[in-house]
Amino acid sequence: MKAMKIKATVNIDMQDIKDVICAGIEGGIDHWAQITLVQRPSGTEKVCTYEVPFFEGGELVICDQEDLNEKGLLNLKTIEKGLTIMADRFPWHFENLIKDNADAETGDVLIQLAVWGDIVFG
Tens-of-pLDDT digits for all 122 residues of the chain? Predict the structure, then answer.
């Protein structure tokens, strides 16, 4: 039997997304990435680094550890892009996120998809 592919809208609690980004930064991306710049909007001086991308104008510059010239941005727009790619191409990771089973690997994948548009580092 053939499968039917559909597109659906899924509401994900913002705290769940923050939590998976935090897990990715604290324990998922350290094997390939370096945060080289934290662009903090005014009034976010005391906000944890992983929360900065969730503020308007806030973003992290993330670089490949082996080539600091290879860099991308982590901000609200790229996180949304990463979630869309995750849902379309890596549904098992997306399922972990929406079923509250996300971990550092899920965060790593989301950050890579947000920054690079694909899983570049295994």
Answer: 788 877 888 899 999 999 999 999 999 898 899 999 999 999 888 899 999 999 999 999 999 988 888 899 999 999 999 999 999 999 999 999 999 999 999 999 999 999 999 999 87
Strand-strand pairing, 33-39 and 67-74? unpaired
- Dihedral, 65, 72, 121, 105 alpha carbons, nearest 10: 100
Angle (deg, nearest 10), helices 104-116 and 76-89: 110
Distance CA 82, CA 17 (A): 11
Phi, psi of 116 (to 5 degrees): -110, -15
